[in-house]
Amino acid sequence: MFNKKKQVLLIATLALNGAVLAHEGVHSKNPAVQLDTMKQGAIIGQGEFIFKVNHNWLDQQGEDHLGATHGDIVFDEEGYLYVSFSDGQFKGIAKFSADGKFVKKLKGQYPDVHGMLIRKEGGREYIYAVSNTQGKMWKIDLQGNTVFSINKTKIVEDSKVYKANDKGEYRVALTSVTVGPDGDIFLADGYSSNFIHIYTHDGKYKKSFGGWGKDIGRFHQAHDITIDTRFEQPYLVICNRANNRIEHWDFQGNFVRVISEGLRMPGKIAFWEDNMIVAELKGRVSILDKDHEIVAHLGENSVGLSGNYHAEPEQWKQGEFLAPHTAKFDKLGNLYVMDWNYLGRVTQLVKQ
């Protein structure tokens, strides 16, 4: 349920045939908004979170699709965005300008980058990236040079929480990375062991916590880990995706509290001022306030495609998402949503 003080009329979205459709049966009474919708595309949102939707804004370099999007998006200080792709012409990490123009592919081999963080250290910006297929973390400069890495073998040997399969192989499938206030590196193995591994800034192993399970203190797809600085004391915030929980943990790996539950497979977290944006794999993006009450739902899928990796372009609907894998704000408050899709879909939502 929405907080009644913050619940407002949901503005109508534009159908592909040019007619203004009502979302959930409610029509906008604002003719100026409807005019903008007719000219520019879908207008979606609630309360202070009203956006104009641009689905086809990212430069495809003449190809008919971007390439599989099962990754992440980060922004540098100048406003350029870095997007990870699993295949296609941009396979690896590609840099785009704020208006969607392709700039370059980062050099270096960075396959299947599932989670990224950009961080300034010593006056320079670096991307921390993890691969779910390689079980590896890289610290990369903005040209694409690896300056530091932690590989699968090291994680297995350090943590001693993995069991080999019948072939003597170990599976490490990293989904997210973040860096704590003192420089500690946190690696989430959300597609395998469901442990969070803690390393010092120079790669010395400290501990692992979590592991698979449905009870409090355990993870079923520890899909994302980031830092929540909205409170007097900062916390780790972890998307416990298949358990449908978002949780606070301290930096020593101790469970603190559940801050939200009952969402539709919450997979990635980002922050805008005191608000938390949640990419829900089951076809929706939600915004929660500092009290963790929902203040807006965005792009809720209405045609049964939610969570469908193989949804074809002719099935995509204006103003709706398919399977949001990540959602990030830029410094102006515009929102960028990556759908989990085999052809690739990244949507820009311009704040109104």
TrEMBL record:
Keywords: Signal. Residues 1-22 form the signal peptide. It comes from the Bacteria. The keyword Amino-acid biosynthesis does not apply. The keyword Transmembrane does not apply. Coiled coil: none annotated. Transmembrane segments: none annotated. This is 6-bladed beta-propeller.
